[in-house]
Amino acid sequence: MRLPVLFIFITVVLDAMGIGIIMPVMPDLIREVGNVDLSRAAIWGGTLTVVFAVNQFLFSPTVGGLSDAYGRRPVLLVALFVMAVDYLILALAQSMWLLFVGRFIGGITAATQSTASAYMADISSNEDKAKNFGLLGAAFGVGFVLGPMVGGLLAEYGSRAPFYAAAVITFANMLFGYFVLPETVSDQNRRPFNWRRANPFGAFAQMKKLPGLMPMLMVFLLLSIAFFVYPSIWAFFGRAQFNWDARMVGLSLAAYGFGIVIIQGALIRPILKRFGEKTTAVFGMCMHLLTFLVYPFMTETWHVFAYMPISVFSAVAVPALQGLMSNSVADNAQGELQGAMSSLTAVATIVSPFVMTRTFSYFTGEEAPVYLPSAPFLLSALSVVVALVLFWRWRGGVASKEIAG
Predict the structure, then answer these.
(1) 75 contact partners, CB below 8 Å, separation of at least 6
(2) What domains, with CATH codes, occur in the chain?
(3) DSSP label at residue 22
(4) Mean pLDDT over residues 22-47, rounded?
């Protein structure tokens, strides 16, 4: 593996680890800094996550535009340096406003994934692009698994330990990139920065060109909102329902992430080949629904791990939906479709933490009508039911093909 490719691989791993490594300790850190109970800590956690997600959404086009104008190398190296400083801020924070500052900065630096992908495209031949983009997908999967595992294990040394570790690793990767990363933007392919192109809401306007797919895009949004219940409240739910510590939260998230990687990396193709996209999408949504309805009845830790090999099959739903939508539009509308889905994913990462953490807080607070830590999962189940109804009524994307073509 060439050194620049290795650097990009590590950078994407770190991006994927960014949230996962701190998820197991966030409830403890918020309670420690804010002097609040678990119920209130969940609201603060959701607010911090929303701040992070909003900035990632708002700044992704800006960071991409800056890399086109001033080069991939300075954007990536500066982002990594700021990311390392951000982890130190979180590690040293003694007040909630410093946690807000940390998450605000973190959302901006997390917007560099598009720059990493652009760099990979710059250095890849036409024959190697598919292979190298597959490598980026693998990197994201590795980070998704390693993040919570490392965070949970380091929590043994205190709620601040994962942040210090993340800062050191990120800074080391920045130094590595400083010595091995050549610039790929030259005068021939440099593009002046334009604020109009940096508009993060531009992709929403493109949805008007895909009218036949609007029901499917809404299905995609509803499923995304339902799925993001996991990063939103899992750490809080585990403590309330099973009395887990940070280590167990991290291990459970890592195990779930490992299962998703296996499903989407190895099993999705034979499943799609055998059952087709529509049947696979319905099956995945039904697995989501069943899983969300089962959580209220889980009372022991072993229940979660015993059911996990079944629950991870819900991960086939979104790839099947993406395939259906992609096959329902013309070739010259693929970019519009991908932009629309990226924007909807960003909306889900903002809406879900806000709604799910407040639901958790309401049903675990002192004035709760019934103590029900699993209430957010029931809300996710309702979202999936609506998605299934919309999907059932959808009759394909013929209109969007005609318009796009």
Answers:
(1) 63, 66, 67, 112, 115
(2) 1-182 (1.20.1250.20), 201-405 (1.20.1250.20)
(3) T
(4) 91
